[in-house]
Amino acid sequence: MAAVARFHLLQQTCPSFQPSAVLSKFPLASSFIFYNSGTNTNLRSGATTLLRKISTTPPLCSNSESSFSSSESSQSIVGDLLDFLNESWTQFHATAEAKRQLVAAGFHLLNENEEWQLKPGGRYFFTRNMSSLVAFAIGEKYSVGNGFHVIAAHTDSPCLKLKPKSASSKSGYLMVNVQTYGGGLWHTWFDRDLSLAGRVIVRAHDGSFSHKLVKIKRPLLRVPTLAIHLNRTVNTDGFKPNLETQLNPLLATEADNESSKTNEKISASSSKDAHHQLLMQILSDELGCKAQDIASIELNVCDTQPSCLGGAYKEFVFSGRLDNLASSFCALRALVDSCATPASLENEHAIRMVALFDNEEVGSDSYQGAGAPTIFEAMRRVIASLGQQSVGECSFARAIRHSFLVSADMAHGVHPNFVDKHEENHRPVLQKGLVIKHNANQRYATSGVTSFLFNEVAKIHNLPTQEFVVRNDMGCGSTIGPILASGIGIRTVDCGIAQLSMHSVREICGKEDIDIAYKHFKAFYEMFSSIDKKLNVDG
Q1: Of the candidates 124, 38, 84, the residue with the CA atom closest to the CA atom of residue 353
Q2: How far apart are CA 405 and CA 481, in angstroms?
Q3: What does pTM read for this prediction?
Q4: In a designed cystine with 359, which of 25, 314, 366, 500 is the match (CB 3.0 to 4.6 A)?
């Protein structure tokens, strides 16, 4: 929270809860219903009778593997979220997938290096570094000086990244040197089936270069833990690996004297090359090029386990990178669906925008991060293009004053085993709606006015919201909210979907919260103009 092509989803053999032979003879054998009127029943909704539909099918890992019921599929975006997560192993893949979806929805790709020709009713987007993205839809009734309604999130997540010189060998193993990115729970990366994904620069025969994304879908790497027999006090003293010397993944065993000449050549060259030749060969095979044509690589270590639904009622999303791809997807989908028809923008006076930034997890101070003037420059260029003439500072300043930004980043749900880590009156739970974040020291940008306006959107649509403040005796994380609020001077509210296991290699959030966040964001785009004009603070 600190924060191109689609691949065929990995086939996962998920543990299944099989129906009995008797149930299998019935038409609805894939599910059954429990009725329990006992006094000790754990009631979830306050009813006197428990009525829950238990699914006996394997966990849903993508929308293509299984489907919701007809009534649910028309309302839920969870299956599409799983597809998005399974596509988006890195910030580059997340941006590329967002780009693909925007193009499919009819948005026009802009280039920051070229002049923009925009018009009311148009839908546009651009990418920067292929790891950040800004998309916007212009209201038909927009006039210069009207505001931008923005939802901002980030595409990056804590992970391990290959060092510029990653090749090393230890005790007969080919190892890969990595550096930590962000504040990850690094012990969760041990004993996982890991691989590599990211981007490469490939040299063409004519001397030009191309930018390509790559993803090795099979398990390729592993960081093994030390056996308890060799570390007897680990359960009492804690697992405290040295991140420089004990977090490097294994790639392969070194070639021995009986190996083929090819393997001997690969092993010998590994000691002098920046990256193991074996690794470069794997990458070149995936890309369909020669290893010597790969001019540069920028790769993340990724967990290969697919995102899926879990829990007894399939009520949880189990996945890596929920922080903050869940927010990014909900915001992107809300923008696309809020202007899906020609009539969607005909009465809109504002500009609807989504901004997805990179490098939030390390402070946002980068060319592609929220600390750069990306969104500020985009707003100015939009106004200048629509004004069809030189636009003065007053027009731009008025537009910013009329604007509103939702900083969407995952929130800390109360942990059932560590309840005391939350302030007793502010304990967000899963499945209960977006969490509005407050901090008196401005670690979050929420104010009394911005929380009120954002809550009004929820009230009109009967959507639940929750509140969060950190305990006074604990430090507070932050988001891109304060960065953008202070950098642009835009009214901002910080909110997020409640989750557990934040910054673990495998995180958890509530399935219902995904749909609630999507509906809240979509309603924000569609009706904030009418709500905002009812409140006058500085007039």
Answers
A1: 124
A2: 8
A3: 0.86
A4: 366
